[in-house]
Fold this sequence. Notes:
This protein is α+β, with helices and mostly antiparallel strands.
Amino acid sequence: xxxxxxxxxxxxxxxxxxxxxxxxxxxxxxxxxxxxxxxxxxxxxxxxxxxxxxxxxxxxxxxxxxxxxxxxxxxxxxxxxxxxxxxxxxxxxxxxxxxxxxxxxxxxxxxxxxxxxxxxxxxxxxxxxxxxxxxxxxxxxxxxxxxxxxxxxxxxxxxxxxxxxxxxxxxxxxxxxxxxxxxxxxxxxxxxxxxxxxxxxxxxxxxxxxxxxxxxxxxxxxxxxxxxxxxxxxx
Length: 235
């Protein structure tokens, strides 16, 4: 996947036409990913770029902070390094403002396309518990299946509460543990029982069925959206 560096506006040649070409090449790759219904990591990357561009536009983030810095001196008493911005020309800052304005609307448009696909995918996903859910549901299993396939992928998940900048956030880690083939006898309930026998530290695990009515990319789309649905369920 073609990526766009975090400080793409201030890296290399600072020229509107060149940066326009660089941006459009990246957005072309984003459009290609979305056409293949591959949402992540492209969608989150676009949202991050849009956030930075919006902060620059609103004045919350100074463009000068994005420039590479040069080392001026070393303070051996304070054990610190003193840096200064390499570029301060007004004409260059004006060019960067022009580039940022151009990029902001393009990022927003591409994000809208991605969110439309996200909504479409979420609407055709079935997410429900397998069996009775225990009171403790911060750890357990996700059984992923698709309508046109007999494959069932078993994932284990663990949700944790993180604290950052004084605020608490819930995160979830998901990793694949087994592959099964669905049949008349090999049901989701039976697969859950088999996993319980194998992974004894979870004697009564919360288990969820994540089912897609269409054949979609697992890693780039189903798992990221499934993680969001899971966070809503366990929060």
